[in-house]
Amino acid sequence: MPKTVFCQKYQKSLPGLEHPPFPGPEGQTIFTTISQQAWQEWLKMQTMLINERNLQLIDPNAQTYLKKQRTKFFNNEVMDHIEGYTPP
């Protein structure tokens, strides 16, 4: 059974990730505060942002942009608009 976390995005206890999504303090913070559900939703949103904005992940500016959008997503703040996307 997966561990439970109090999800920052949904403000309730939900199943957490099995391991940090990437190394370092930021990955550890996500591991302890973001649910599996929120992480999977972020991955879909991230893919849409990459495709819509034609981001090259090797570009440090693209990485910084995605990090800011991820923070907004998990904090339920207004993110950049994605053409043709209507949130559920």
How are the secondary structure elements laid out?
Layout: E1 4-7, E2 12-15, H1 25-33, H2 36-53, H3 60-74
Antiparallel strand pairs: 1-2
Helix pairs in contact: 2-3
Biggest sheet statistics: 2 strands, antiparallel
- What gross morphology would you assign? globular
Q: What is the CA-based Rg, rounded?
A: 13 Å
Strand content bin: 5-15%
List unreliable stretches of 5+ residues.
none
Structural description of this entry:
The protein is mostly helical and 88 residues long. It has a domain at 1-7 and 36-77. It is built from 3 helices and 2 strands; from the N terminus they run E-E-H-H-H. It has a two-stranded antiparallel ribbon with strand order 1-2. Strand 1 (4-7) and strand 2 form a beta hairpin. Helix 2 crosses helix 3 (60-74). The longest helix has 18 residues, at 36-53. It is globular and about 35 Å long. The model has no long low-confidence stretch (mean pLDDT 92).
Features:
single chain; 88 residues; mainly alpha; 3 helices; 2 strands; 48% helix
Put the structure in a nutshell.
The chain is mainly alpha-helical and 88 residues long. The protein has helices at 25-33, 36-53, 60-74; strands spanning 4-7, 12-15. It contains three helices and two strands.
